[in-house]
Amino acid sequence: MYNVAVVGATGIVGRQIVEILDERDFPVKVLSLFASPDSLGEFLQFGDESMPVQLLEKTVFDAVDIAFFCAGATVSAEYCPVAAAAGVICIDCSGYWSDEEAVPLVVPEVNPEAVAEFKAKRIIANPDCATIQLSLPVQALGGVDVVERVVVSTYQAVSDCGQKGVDELRQQSGELLNGRPAKQKEFSHQVGFDCIPQIGDFLDDGYTSTEVNLVKQMHRLFDKTLAITATAVTVPIFYGNCQSVNIQTRASIDINEISELLDGFTGLEVVDDLTAKQYPLPVDVTGQDGVYVGRLRTDFSVQNGLNLWSALDNIRKGAATNAVQIAELVVEKYM
After folding, report:
1. Are residues 72 and 145 in the same domain?
2. Domain span at residue 67?
3. What is the CATH number of the domain that holds 181?
4. Quick one: pLDDT at residue 328?
5. Residue 57 maps to which CATH number?
């Protein structure tokens, strides 16, 4: 049994981590929940217990074995090294450590062996939800040995911005439906009943930081020889991210074989019954832990091309579940 901490426990990902630790019967001896002063006095349910939220301080890690960090990049940058120095294994969900070469970036279904690299800094980076979603079908097809090029458009729910994003869409929807102008704060434009082709800041080459991060993280998981380009769009739904993916393989693969490869891969589920109009939908994957793929078809415009559509719960497998799966690997192999 292990002493576990969740930093940012009252945020949208932190709450989900607490729930998933319970769902998956993670061997928790003592669970400690930390957040900002604004959350003091709150309680979260863990099993049959109501757990108090405590103030995050640098002295709280002495008795902790594993800590999940989901309170944003600033907190992770400051507190992960402190916790690691106290002997804690840190699993960071903020994205801050994802570019650090000495910190492994892990999707358990794709590169579980990379967990061993945590020993350098005692920090493991949880990838962005878009990376997790894309990496599973690429790995199922054989990784860079089989996949030559990927073109992905990712359609991301407002919950990627946390509870504030959810609240803004809810408020804007109510305002617009009642004929009032929408108040915009968290997003670059009105998100209610609209799509925003910008997630993150624009860089000099015209891509956004989110698009570039997706490419960088895919290169870390696989190899820089993987040709990949991305477009990221915020869409007016609360939960569930979707991707339109075009893949070019190094050799021809029959579409039925592709379906079998995807459906037989751990963490993937094929939903692709055109007669019944069945394909992955955000509303159907919410609350689930897999990546769901469908609309499989040959791309006749290029040699060895295929198209697919995928969906996942961005807060569960796209963040919290992946983080807990990383912790399970650590416990199984290194503790």
Report:
1. no
2. 2-127+319-334
3. 3.30.360.10
4. 98
5. 3.40.50.720
Same domain, 276 and 325: no
The SS3 of residue 203 is coil
Q: What is the pTM of this model?
A: 0.97
Position 136 pLDDT exceeds 90: yes
Sheet holding 291-299, edge to edge: 227-234, 147-156, 241-249, 305-312, 291-299, 268-270
275, 205 Cβ separation under 8 angstroms: no
C-alpha 28/C-alpha 194 separation (Å) is 43
DSSP states along 221-272: HS-TTSEEEEEEEE-S-SS-EEEEEEEEESS---HHHHHHHHHTSTTEEE--
User: Is the confidence at residue 335, as pLDDT, over 90?
Assistant: no
Contact 280, 293 (CB under 8 A): yes
Beta-bridge mates of residue 125:
92, 105
Q: Are residues 139 and 84 in the same domain?
A: no
Helix axes 12-23, 321-334, angle to 10 degrees: 50
Please give the biggest Cα pair distance in the chain.
60
73: amino acid identity, one letter:
A
Residue 279: both structure tokens together: 């394909």
CA distance 19 to 4: 13
Q: Quick one: CA torsion of 321, 290, 156, 208, rounded to 10 degrees?
A: 70
Give how many domains the chain has, as a whole number. Answer: 2
Same structural domain for residues 8 and 107?
yes
Query: What number is the average pLDDT over the span 168-177?
Result: 97
The interaxial angle of helices 209-221 and 129-141, nearest 10 deg, is 40
Query: Does 53 lie in the same domain as 156?
Result: no
pLDDT over threshold 90, residue 291 = yes
Q: Report the percent of the chain where pLDDT is more than 70.
A: 100
175 and 304 belong to one structural domain = yes
